[in-house]
Amino acid sequence: MDSWRVYLSGEIHTDWREQIEAGVKTAGLPVVLSAPVTHHEASDDCGVAILGAETDKFWHDHKGAKVNAIRTRTLIEKADIVVVRFGEQYRQWNAAFDAGYAAALGKPLIVMHGPAHQHALKEVDAAALAVAETPEQIVAILDYVINSKLAGYTQ
Predict the structure, then answer these.
(1) HEC profile for the chain?
(2) pLDDT per residue over 59-99, tens digit each?
(3) 129 φ/ψ sector (left φ>0, alpha ψ -120 to 50, else beta)
(4) Is 84 inside a domain boundary?
(5) Is 48 contained in some domain?
(6) pTM for the complete prediction?
(7) Does residue 98 sit within a domain?
(8) Which of these, 5, 36, 93, 107, has the minimum number of CB atoms within 10 Å of its CB?
(9) Each residue of 109-154: pLDDT tens digit?
(10) Within a 13 Å sphere around the CA of 74, how many CA atoms are in the beta-carbon half?
(11) Residue 149 · residue 143 · CB < 8 Å
(12) Domain that holds residue 45
């Protein structure tokens, strides 16, 4: 495989994606990262901006969710590995859906969240092949999986 396609789903309010991107670059990993649209307002409003206004908020959100699903489903289906981050501040129902979709497709799933979410995400964690807490752990997993490299071990 020339390069690994890794989809980064979930929380959009911190720089975890950028940390993974920097770690992948520093490690020289042959990884192509993709993600959903992370500009919150654009993601919320894409449906009505493209397809026309809605007076009911339900239909406003419905249009946006469907347009976003075109990107999300396509990139998850193309991914070799799916990473789903659950942040501390907001409930990410869309991230849980992405994790379930990836699991249903048989995609290797890595979940990332802090200890406070262990109980709430126990079913999602059970479907994952790894549960990490930091972007550095994600990069270490990718390095091990791709290059068979484990820090502190010689081959």
Answers:
(1) CCCEEEEEEECCCCCHHHHHHHHHHHHCCCEEEECCCCCHHHHHHHHHHHHCCCCCHHHHHHHHHHHHHHHHHHHHHHCCEEEEECCCCCCCHHHHHHHHHHHHCCCCEEEECCHHHCCCCHHHHHHCCEEECCHHHHHHHHHHHHHCCCCCCCC
(2) 999 999 999 999 999 999 999 999 999 998 777 889 999 99
(3) alpha
(4) yes
(5) yes
(6) 0.95
(7) yes
(8) 93
(9) 999 999 999 999 999 999 999 999 999 999 999 999 999 989 888 7
(10) 9
(11) yes
(12) 4-147
- Cβ(36)–Cβ(69) under 8 Å? no
152 within domain boundaries: no
Q: Buried (b) or exposed (e) across 98-134, using 16+ Cβ within 10 A?
A: bbebbbeeebbbbbbbeeebeeebeebbeebebbbee
Number of domains in the chain: 1
Residue with tokens 């009505």: 48
Q: Which two tokens stand for residue 88?
A: 């501390």
CATH number for the domain harbouring residue 92 = 3.40.50.450
Q: Tell me if 43 sits within 8 A of 154, measured CB to CB.
A: no
The number of residues making up the chain comes to 155
